[in-house]
Amino acid sequence: MAAMAALGRRLRALGRAVGCRGVQSHAGAPPVPPHPAEAPPDPHPPRLEESTADYAFVERLLPPTRIPDPPLHPTYPTPSGWSPPKGPPPALPYFVRRSRLHNLPVYRRLVKGNRRLTELRHVEGDIWALERELRAFLGVPDLEVQVNEVTGSLRLKGHWERELRDWLLQRGF
Questions:
Q1: How far apart are the C-alpha atoms of 160 and 22, rounded to whole Å?
Q2: Could you report the per-residue pLDDT of 89-100, keeping only the tens digit for each?
């Protein structure tokens, strides 16, 4: 193994001394082609033709770029409980944006086995005004609420998911 490594080192040194990229095995072998970076530019580059006829087959396989709008239903709420927003957004100092699947961003959490939390996400605007109105709506003035302005979310102590969803739908979100 050591002899092969020594032979490789000698051949590389010989190639550097001669100015070749490699050493030819015998005198009748064809010359080594130049490196592509050293070759002169081709005066006639290959002609490329772009075909759009077959792209329709590829386009079917690509994932959609956005989630489509939900279909219209004869009655609301649907059997799954989903309801669309009512008309244009209300003129309030805050806005609750729906999730990417068009659902209200209200989530129920159970932390460490028995701590119940309700989380409201995607709040934009005056999050403190939303917190005040939530306290007034729920009728619990000493309700523990954690407001996170950076992430735009509120955490309420207790499971208030149903009440919060109904209140958001009533407000037009």
A1: 76
A2: 889 999 999 998
Instruction: From 56, 122, 58, select the one nearest 89 (Cα to Cα).
Output: 122
Per-residue pLDDT tens over the stretch 3-44: 777 777 777 776 665 555 554 555 556 666 666 667 677 778
∠ CA 9-12-16 to the nearest 5 degrees? 140
Instruction: Give me the percent of the chain exceeding a pLDDT of 70.
Output: 83
Under 8 Å between Cβ of 84 and 74? no
Look up residue 98 and give its amino acid.
R
Q: What is the DSSP code (8-state) at residue 18? A: H
**Positive or negative: CA dihedral 156, 159, 160, 166:** positive
Backbone φ, ψ for residue 162 (5° rounding): -60, -45
Assess contact for 89 and 79: CB atoms under 8 A: no
The pTM of the full predicted model, rounded to 2 decimals, is: 0.61
Strands (E), 112-173: 115-120, 123-125, 145-148, 153-157
